[in-house]
């Protein structure tokens, strides 16, 4: 990815102008916001809850720590980290997703979270503001991933940690073909049945295929300045937890 205005970026299997992708992704998440959590359960058989629990155990939030949960949308990760006493800023580029998260927090009686509409590529926070930066199932939707990673590095304190969980491509023999069939054929139909939105969920499936493989993405994390990077694959590599440190 480069900064040239005429560069194309991926939107599912299409290549579009960067500004167009930002708008298209915004429309996707505005469309699915109200059904997003129901759809996560339907599409993963509830396993996303276990993956998120495992992710937060890796982050190890501590009381009083300042953590930026980017693409935090409906609050799933933030709620888990807040239980451990960390001070969480939930940031998302999509206000509709944040509004759903705020409503969920009120319904659950969760207080003390901060909510902010932010572009991951141009955060409004000063340098060295946070002890940890988390982003779950969100970075593949960013228009310029390299810029978002550099911003994550910038806003972290020295000694701060970066954690990202993202879908990938499973390498389990036999399961890969089933997973591909499910992603491309069944997942959009589930989206149509539950959220009345087939196209948004087709994009979400396609975006997983276009996202860099774990080793390539780990290289991007290192290029952004992080060290001691690590990849932990889950469910045969269908999901991966990426981490790194700023020193």
Structure write-up:
- With 247 residues, the chain is an alpha/beta fold.
- It has one domain: Vaccinia Virus protein VP39 (Rossmann fold), CATH 3.40.50.
- Helices cover 46% and strands 22% of the residues.
- The chain contains 9 helices and 9 strands.
- Strands 5-4-3-6-7-9-8 form a 7-stranded mixed beta sheet, sandwiched between helices. A two-stranded antiparallel sheet has the order 1-2.
- The model is unreliable at 1-5 (pLDDT under 50).
Q: Which helices and strands, and how do they pair?
A:
Layout: E1 9-11, E2 14-16, H1 18-32, H2 36-44, H3 47-59, E3 66-70, H4 76-82, E4 87-92, H5 95-108, E5 114-117, E6 130-136, H6 145-155, E7 156-167, H7 175-195, H8 198-210, H9 214-223, E8 227-234, E9 239-245
Helix pairs in contact: 1-8, 2-7, 7-8
Task: Write a brief structural summary.
With 247 residues, the chain is an alpha/beta fold. Helix content is 46%, strand content 22%.
* Low-pLDDT runs: 1-5
Strand order of the biggest β-sheet: 5-4-3-6-7-9-8
Describe the largest sheet.
Answer: 7 strands, mixed
Averaging pLDDT over every residue, what do you get?
87
Per CATH, the superfamily is Vaccinia Virus protein VP39
Residue share in helix? 40-55%
Integer tally of domains: 1
So how many helices? 9
What is the SS-derived class?
alpha/beta
Beta-strand percent range: 15-25%
* CATH architecture assignment name: 3-Layer(aba) Sandwich
- CATH class reads Alpha Beta
Compute the CA-based radius of gyration. Answer: 17 Å
